[in-house]
Automatic annotation (TrEMBL):
Region spans: Disordered: 128-182
Protein name as it appears in the record: DUF5682 family protein
Pro residues compositional bias, start-end: 160-174
Compositional bias per record (Basic and acidic residues), positions renumbered to this chain: 129-139
UniProt feature, compositional bias: Low complexity: 140-158
Lineage start: Bacteria, Bacillati, Actinomycetota, Actinomycetes, Kitasatosporales
Pfam families attached to this UniProt entry: DUF5682
Length: 827
């Protein structure tokens, strides 16, 4: 076998079988290339990437990166070929560039890979499966279905065992139904007596450095092992490998003729026996005859360690990319350096970790390795040592170590000279101008929309969301509820590069693409609520050119939709959009007119729609009533005269609802409550209406529903009962008088009503009920106001807090004057 691994003129190619993303293989490849000094380096990968190889030497290129191929007419159909710093293919490319040696990719072209996936999609064979593409033979169909599909099998020494293989394009290589998709690493590890393939690989490869004079020994041994597996298992259930290997053999032969020997091939170890196999050119070409094609584009894109992880769904993934990166980059004493990294991370999280912890953890890891018969401590030993020494036996901080270090959030960088669609270039320009750097680690971004830069950042993020590029997700703002503040959670994932390419069909800039996409979405929207939500998103994204189309569609849908529930559901989003005119300077005049017309239609149709509803429908309609009430509150403040009368008309609708017996109790109770909160209903009148509903003549279930509508939910109903003991007394008297046979029926409603109150409110209500009306003073006399409050305003006490209020609101008063008045109050 050793003689077969020859080199030089007239000799066979130097076949270097590797494990993709294996640092041990990467070190061995570098040593072998240094010793062999080939004239050309052939690498497993798509040949379309040959023109991109020189960019790997660019100073701006920072792995992990990936080759991205996508269909020109269907950008969402794509495949990735990820490369990390410790990937043997990346090491081979860098070695070739440093030594001025040609580097070429020899795997099946991406034009066939993506067409293969399309064929499977059209045949209905492909299903949504974890991401990986081209190099895993039986998973090429996945590239069609998955929005992003990474290339390469699980290191090609360990094909991903997905129990579904792609149909072969030629009848000569039809898959054997009895074939079992094997994991070569798993078979070798089991043969060696290991139950963990990763641990076996660490022991025989990662912890074994290439000594002087034996640079080719690891490849010879691995080739012999793979030859035995191929002899036993054939293609191992990866039948499309036969096509790929035929193409690679043709490329190797062509390189042999061109360079007269001196050819080095870096490929998955699984393929080495097939490339060594003696076949005719005619037989290989027959396997490739008739393969479908699709026009493709290829470029470099940033990648992350997290996406190299097998847990991300990547078929060629590894368990610990961060750990492997450390093993590859550490010049010496990898365990000691690793423990130092872990200690730094834990100390940054305010955990007490000292140098003594690091020393003790290293000793424990070495002891565990010796007890387990391992040449050096591996990831399992270091993890056990970190858990015992630095984490005090807890898996909670250990999970942080695994997330941040073992897997990691390293995000690669690609040079600006890399090919990109115009939309990608415009996005990169905006990211630089707005100082929004894509990062793999999730972070929060607080924006103040009153600032020009923050407003522009907000607009960019909203536009990207419209385009389906979910770089940022809105989050609840902390410390402020003002509409001028926004909070975003940002995290850049590699597949977003595909989304950008896919969105490029809408335009060459972010603004033009988002505008075209919004207009298309408006025309295709199914429901009225969808159009109103889209109008709101257009305002957030500052797309004034898209608004005319959206408003036209909105007006048409609103005129045709007669369902009051749909109208009520659409109105709040429409009215919320009106607020953005203040903060973002957007003209929302046309939007206000549509909203006012929509509100009028809700007012007319709501009373009939609330009649004869069952419990579920009544609860849904109550939510609509709340939403419309909030919307009218915003819309009623608008300057237009027609809008100024909306609040009065809405209050008339509420009076109708609270007086109709055919309206469910939960809606009648809510209508009374809303009128009371707006000051349109006196407390005595509200108490009278409650007394009527809670009279013995009302069925207990209806009365309970009315109470739920009046004081239920998080609407402050509990505080209303706390401060108005008349209402609390009415509820208490009614509840104690409910017949035993009806109490079980009303208990769920009451429990749902009162369980929504805050603990302090429930405790206060319990105290008031326990002490009874006599201790509480009973009902307040007429004209005395709310119990617990004086009949008239105490002007002196009110004036005392004015300096504090003015200081909090930032009103125009000198700070010294405010401070003096504040001191006078406290004194």
């Amino acid at each position: 076998m050793a003689s077969a691994v020859g080199r030089g003129a007239g000799a066979g190619p130097l076949l270097l079988g590797v494990r993709h993303h294996g640092p041990g293989s990467a070190r061995a490849v570098r040593a072998a290339l240094e010793e062999a000094r080939p004239r050309v380096v052939l690498i497993e990968g798509p040949p379309e990437a040959d023109a991109l190889v020189p960019l790997a030497a660019d100073e701006e290129m920072r792995p992990p990166v990936a080759l991205l191929a996508h269909a020109v007419d269907e950008p969402g159909r794509s495949a990735f070929w990820p490369l990390a710093e410790f990937s043997p293919e990346w090491v081979a490319v860098r070695w070739a560039l440093e030594h001025d040696v040609p580097a070429r990719f020899i795997d099946l072209p991406a034009t066939h890979t993506l067409a293969w996936g399309r064929q499977q999609d059209e045949a209905g064979v492909a299903g949504e499966r974890p991401l990986d593409a081209d190099a895993d033979a039986a998973k090429a169909d996945t590239a069609a279905d998955a929005d992003t599909a990474e290339a390469d099998s699980a290191c090609d020494t360990a094909p991903d065992p997905i129990p579904h293989s792609a149909p072969d394009p030629t009848p000569d290589s039809a898959p054997d139904p009895d074939d079992v998709r094997i994991d070569p690493l798993g078979v070798l590890a089991q043969t060696a007596g290991y139950d963990d393939p990763e641990r076996w690989w660490e022991d025989v490869v990662e912890h074994r450095g290439a000594g002087k004079g034996d640079a080719l020994a690891p490849f010879t041994v691995l080739e012999e092992a793979m030859a035995a597996l191929r002899e036993t298992y054939g293609s191992g259930g990866h039948d499309r490998d036969l096509v790929r290997e035929a193409y690679m053999r043709l490329q190797v032969r062509a390189a042999q003729r061109e360079f007269e020997g001196g050819v080095a091939v870096v490929c998955g170890a699984w393929h080495v026996p097939a490339l060594r196999q003696k076949t005719t050119v005619a037989a290989d070409r027959a396997l490739l005859k008739g393969l479908a094609k699709v026009k493709t584009d290829m470029t470099w894109v940033p990648w992350t360690h997290r996406r190299l992880s097998r847990t991300s769904g990547y078929g060629a993934g590894i368990e610990s990319p961060g750990w492997y990166g450390h093993l590859f980059s550490a010049p010496d004493r990898p365990v000691e350096r690793w423990m130092t990294k872990v200690a730094g991370l834990l100390r940054a999280e305010d955990r007490i970790v000292s140098s003594a912890h690091v020393i003790e953890a290293v000793r424990l890891a070495e002891t565990l390795a010796a007890m387990r018969g391992r040449p050096l401590p591996g990831l399992s030993e270091t993890t056990d040592a970190v858990r015992a020494v630095m984490c005090e036996g807890s898996d909670i901080p250990l999970a942080l170590v695994r997330d941040r270090l073992v897997v990691g959030d390293v995000l690669g960088e690609v040079p600006s000279a890399a090919p990109a669609v115009p939309l990608q270039r415009d996005l990169a320009r905006l990211q630089r101008r707005l100082r929004l750097k894509p990062e793999a680690l999730e972070r929060e971004l607080e924006l103040d929309l009153r600032k020009e830069t923050d407003a522009a950042r907000s607009g960019l993020l909203h536009r990207l969301r419209l385009l389906g590029i979910a770089w940022g997700e809105p989050a609840a703002s902390r410390g402020s509820t003002g509409t001028f503040r926004e909070t975003w959670r940002l995290r850049w994932e590699p597949e977003l590069s595909v989304r950008v390419a896919e969105a490029g069909v809408w335009g060459t800039t972010v603004v033009s693409a988002a505008t075209a996409k919004a207009e298309a979405d408006a025309v295709a929207a199914q429901g009225l609520a969808d159009v109103t939500a889209l109008a709101e998103r257009c305002l957030l994204a500052e797309l004034p050119e898209a608004l005319p189309t959206v408003m036209r569609v909105l007006a048409e849908r609103a005129a045709l939709d007669t369902d009051v529930g749909h109208l009520a559901q659409a109105l709040p989003a429409l009215v919320r959009s009106l607020r953005y005119g203040d903060v973002r300077g957007t003209d929302t005049g046309a939007l206000g007119e549509v909203a006012a017309g929509l509100a009028e239609r809700v007012f007319v149709g709501l009373p009939p729609a609330c009649a004869a509803l069952d419990a579920d429908a009544a609860e849904e309609m109550r939510r609509h009533v709340d939403a419309v009430h909030g919307a009218v509150g915003l819309l009623g403040d608008a300057p237009a005269a027609a809008q100024g009368r909306l609040r009065t008309r809405w209050q008339s609708v509420l009076r109708v609802l609270c007086a109709r017996e055919t309206v469910p109790g939960v809606i009648r109770g809510r209508a009374v409550r809303l009128l009371l909160d707006d000051g349109e209903l006196a407390q005595e009148e509200a108490a009278r209406l409650m007394g009527l509903v809670l009279s013995p003549g009302t069925p207990p279930a209806d009365a309970a529903a009315w109470i739920e509508g009046f004081v239920g939910g998080g609407s402050g109903g509990g505080m209303l009962l706390v401060h108005d003991e008349r209402l609390l007394g009415l509820v208490d008297t009614w509840l104690t008088g409910v017949p035993a046979e009806a109490f079980t029926d009303v208990l769920p409603l009451l429990r749902r009503t009162f369980s929504a109150y805050e603990p302090g409110v429930r405790r206060t209500l319990g105290e008031l009920v326990r002490r009874g009306p006599a201790a509480g003073g009973g009902a307040a006399p007429a004209g005395s106001g709310i119990p617990g409050f004086a009949a008239d305003l105490d002007q002196e006490r009110a004036d005392a807090v004015l300096p504090v209020v003015r200081l909090l609101l930032g009103l125009d008063e000198a700070a010294g004057t405010a401070g003096e008045e504040l001191a006078g109050v406290t004194g």
